[in-house]
Amino acid sequence: MRLRSCCVYGAGVLCILLLIAGIVMALTQVFEKLLNNRIKEQVVLENGTEAFSVWQDPPPPVYMQFYFFNLTNPAEVLDGDKPFVQQIGPYTYREYRPKEEVKFMDNGTRVAAVNPKTYVFEPKMSRGSEDDVVRTVNIPAVTAMEKYKDTFLIARIISDLMKAKGISLFGTFRVGDLLWGYEDPLLQELKRARIVQDDHFGLFYKKNGTDDGNYTFFTGKQKYQDFARIDEWNGQSTLNWWSTEGCNMINGTDGASFHPIIKKTEKLYIFSSDLCRSIYAQFESEVRVQGVPGFRFVPPSEVFANLTINPDNAGFCVPAGNCLGSGLLNVSVCKEGAPIIMSSPHFYQADEKFVQDVFGMNPNKEEHETVIDVNPLTGMLLRGAKRVQVNVYLHQMPEFSQTGKIQTLVFPVMYLNESVVIDEESAQKLYKVVTEANVIVNIPFIVISVGILLGVIFIVFMCRQQRPPSTEAEREPLLSS
Ligand SMILES: *[C@@H]1O[C@H](CO)[C@@H](O)[C@H](O)[C@H]1NC(C)=O
Ligand SMILES: *[C@@H]1O[C@H](CO)[C@@H](O)[C@H](O)[C@H]1NC(C)=O
Ligand SMILES: *[C@@H]1O[C@H](CO)[C@@H](O)[C@H](O)[C@H]1NC(C)=O
Ligand SMILES: *[C@@H]1O[C@H](CO)[C@@H](O)[C@H](O)[C@H]1NC(C)=O
Ligand SMILES: *[C@@H]1O[C@H](CO)[C@@H](O)[C@H](O)[C@H]1NC(C)=O
Ligand SMILES: *[C@@H]1O[C@H](CO)[C@@H](O)[C@H](O)[C@H]1NC(C)=O
Ligand SMILES: *[C@@H]1O[C@H](CO)[C@@H](O)[C@H](O)[C@H]1NC(C)=O
Ligand SMILES: *[C@@H]1O[C@H](CO)[C@@H](O)[C@H](O)[C@H]1NC(C)=O
Q1: Residue whose CA is closest, atom 1 of ligand 8?
Q2: Mutation probe of ligand 6 site: the residue of 304, 326, 355 with most atoms within 8 A of C-beta
Q3: Where are the domains of the chain?
Q4: Do the bridges between strand 118-121 and strand 85-96 make them parallel or antiparallel, or are there none, so unpaired?
Q5: Record's family (predicted)?
Q6: What is the distance in A from the centroid of ligand 1 to the CA of 47?
Q7: Could you give the angle at the alpha carbon of 375 between the alpha carbons of 374 and 376, nearest 5°?
């Protein structure tokens, strides 16, 4: 009897102790703090750490995919009809983007680096080859016309040169040329006349193997939330990108910087030198990438909305007060005057008008939105896809008969999808970390559960003792002897 009641009371006491311990642990969040400290130790850029080597040369493959819009009715468009385009592609490139010229500064709190990108064609992931031909706007010609339309003499020279060389507003181009650069006959003449300096044109001309300027990053040593966050780009603080007037899509690197331990309420700022600004993304849904749990962040439609809906977007209107409507960004200033307008692919989230103006646009969320999936615990990027479209602003210019009776149009030339998915090895490592973390964080609840179980056992035995059945009473002396 004594041994038995000892056990029962022991269970009762243990139950209370476990409950108290569990509740205290749960309330003080001691395991969360431990976990956070461990993560904090790991997310710092220091020579020799794994975080540093991953940052310096990210293991998962990045792919850049280009889709072009092949114009089928150029003559009709010059007569004022709607353009009819057919999407071709993807033309896929593997992108290599190691950080180079890495230099630690300020006692290891910041690190400077450049981020050159190299593109290698991936025929297996492409539909078509770099030798494919696409019919689209002659961008160098339109740029020259736009730039000199108010300079009578030069406008006249350009118009005559175009006629002599049989250059029209639209032309056919090799895909590889249009991307990486070719010698343009009109630019050759203009260079000879010293009107332009470079006779080459390409959307990614001189972008293979070159970097887009100097970056400084925070290492996270001072504040772990700042881990790998971009501080400056070419000597300018990146905090002000919001208000900066449009910029460079074609020469851009982009970096996404994440805080470890991401909350659903957070705004993720994605810096993109393409757009010369950062845009933000907000939580949309919970996802799984290779089994690892993640939060999906997407830019909310307000990011692209017109001034009526989002007055903060006044920066979109360039020059000041000149608004194109939702979803468009005039980046002419940083394209050396080329009338380039950026948007989401197929004018996703832009005014319906732009979709309607071109036959062949088919905007949809899955294919055309920019997404970022991050693991909330570590802030690691699981999947990302940046999707941007390059358009040319076309309108009649009386100085140039080449523009015919064309409607005022935002004409789509191509869009790109720059995407990355975490590699299997990193995903497995991360999966382990997340699983362990789940166990650790749940220790207080496991303790509380055990406490409750003991409590139940204690109560059951106490109840049984209150009404001892005869058989048990007979056996008692045996047990206690
Ligand atoms: C990191 O350490 C190695 C070896 O100690 C050294 O060669 C390298 O220059 C260091 N890198 C940086 C960025 O300081
Ligand atoms: C670097 O650390 C030393 C000593 O800890 C300190 O005297 C110095 O001011 C620090 N320099 C910077 C740029 O923070
Ligand atoms: C870019 O440069 C690399 C190495 O210099 C080369 O292998 C690759 O073919 C180039 N890509 C393009 C698109 O020219
Ligand atoms: C694009 O259109 C042109 C003219 O119709 C055609 O010759 C060319 O083959 C098309 N390109 C592709 C990749 O289909
Ligand atoms: C982008 O390219 C243009 C012309 O090639 C150059 O003038 C400009 O400085 C570049 N911008 C960046 C951010 O590298
Ligand atoms: C802004 O967009 C909304 C909805 O798309 C539209 O109703 C409104 O007229 C637009 N405002 C301007 C100034 O374009
Ligand atoms: C785009 O911006 C440039 C330079 O600021 C300006 O000259 C041009 O008119 C703008 N284009 C449109 C379509 O508003
Ligand atoms: C990139 O986006 C396009 C559509 O925008 C899609 O068809 C393609 O599969 C995507 N590529 C990757 C690697 O996810």
Answers
A1: 417
A2: 326
A3: 60-422
A4: antiparallel
A5: Belongs to the CD36 family.
A6: 6
A7: 105
